[in-house]
Design brief:
Shape: globular
Number of strands: 0
Structural class: mainly alpha
Helix content: 40-55%
Largest sheet: none
Number of domains: 1
Distance between the termini: 48 Å
Number of helices: 11
Amino acid sequence: MQHHTLRGPDNPDYFDTSRLSYVLTCDDPALCKAPFVAAKNVVYPSQHEIDALEYYIEHFVWGKLQRTDKETPYPYGVYGTPNWRVNRDTALRRANVNDRNKDKMHVWRSYDYPHIVMLYYHLYQIAKRYPGKTHYLDAAGYLARARETAKAFFLYPYEILPWYETYKWGCYNELLFVPLMADLEKEGFATDAAFPAQRMGEESEVFHLRRRPIPSDRNTPSTPRPSNPVMRWQNMPCKTNCCRIVIFGSIRTCGGGTPTRISTKRMPGDLWTAR
């Protein structure tokens, strides 16, 4: 603000000298802002804000922070720390002394993915509810981006770094996968919805088997806290005490009860309840 300059990976000032780099380009501090604005616009749309979100996707996310559908390997992969510019530039990455996995493409950090999924998903909702307000992509385009980014979230971290078991870690905004999967089914993509449902079911089961909530990269992190109430509800006995919910977002049938589904009527951030 002092120099009236927009900072980013190309012009970081002193933000690239410490963990403050997260504020500009990646991880929870940087990537949470646009999805938050998108969530607000689902209910209170502002054309100026929607245009800004689409500008952000076109000029910062697609083809920079996130690999496109044409880039192989790892299409739809999201670059992690320190920033996408360093991770895309071989010389800059070679000079990064903190990078201990220079032989691997840096799209394995799971924490970045749910924010991008959330951004695309809310823009899908905006395009669906308010036709004509989005111009970069239509509802189908944003749903496709959310769907493929969600798949990448579950596949790439474990594939690139086998110890990085995504379904055992809690991430901000991953609870958005619940309504996303419901809408994928509704739009005719049941097979695509089944894959993240299975993985989220594994995460829910891990939560149930642990004596403590889902962990993250610190002993007492805040990262997984939004997921924990959802996971706990997922593993509560059903009303007839005949089964436990394991698969996230899927219909469950009970021996003496009516099939139920996790509600997607509430806004993200609310505690999901059965209907």
